[in-house]
Specification:
about 170 residues, mainly alpha, Cyclin A, domain 1, about 60% helix, GTPase activator activity, Rab-GAP_TBC_sf
C-alpha cells in the first residue's frame, strides 16, 4: 500500500471529521423526527440508550444501497434526486416506525442487542418499494409536507438540543 504524502493526512482527517459530524447531526434530526412520528419507537431507543449513529450511519452514508433490495434502492434514489434529502429521512422513519413502532414488535427486543439485530436485519416486507413509499404509512402532516432541512443543518437547536429542533 502506497503511503500518502504528509500534507494529505491533515486534510483527510479534517474531511473525515466533517463527515462524522454531519452523520451525527443527521442522527439528531432523525431522532427528533422519530419522536414526533412514533413515540413508541423513540422511547424504546431512548430507554436502551441506542444512539441513532449506531443504526442509521449505513442507511444514510450508503443511501440504503446496502440495506434494501435493488428495486427499492432505485426507487429511493429516484425520489431522492427529485425531492431531495428528506426522502432519506422519510425512508428511515418508515423503517423505524414499522420495525419498532408497537408494543407487540418490541416484545422481541428486550435490550440493546436484540434491538440492534432487528434494525440490522430488516424484514423483507418492509423493504419493498411500494411499502416504503406509501404516504399514508407515515403521518408527517403535523411536520408539514416539506420540513426545511437546510434550516435544520444551519442551526439544529442553537444549543445542540434535539428537543428544540425547528421543523417548518
Amino acid at each position: 500500500m502506497k503511503r500518502q504524502p504528509p500534507t494529505a493526512r491533515p486534510f483527510l482527517r479534517s474531511r473525515q471529521a466533517l463527515i462524522l459530524e454531519a452523520i451525527q447531526l443527521d442522527g439528531e434530526i432523525l431522532f427528533a423526527l422519530l419522536r414526533r412520528v412514533s413515540t413508541v419507537a423513540y422511547k424504546h431507543l431512548k430507554k436502551h440508550k441506542i444512539d441513532p449513529v449506531l443504526y442509521m450511519t449505513e442507511w444514510f452514508m450508503c443511501a440504503f444501497s446496502r440495506t434494501l433490495p435493488w428495486a427499492s434502492v432505485l426507487r429511493v434514489w429516484d425520489m431522492f434526486f427529485c425531492e431531495g434529502v428528506k426522502i432519506i429521512f422519510r425512508v428511515g422513519l418508515v423503517l423505524l416506525k414499522n420495525m419498532l413502532g408497537s408494543s407487540d414488535k418490541l416484545k422481541v427486543c428486550q435490550g440493546l442487542y436484540e434491538t440492534m439485530e432487528l434494525l440490522r436485519t430488516v424484514e423483507p416486507r418492509y423493504m419493498q418499494e411500494g411499502f416504503l413509499m406509501r404516504e399514508d404509512d407515515l403521518d408527517l402532516s403535523d411536520l408539514s409536507d416539506d420540513f426545511d432541512l437546510a434550516d435544520l443543518y444551519e442551526n439544529p437547536a442553537g444549543d445542540s438540543s434535539t428537543d428544540q429542533l425547528k421543523l417548518v
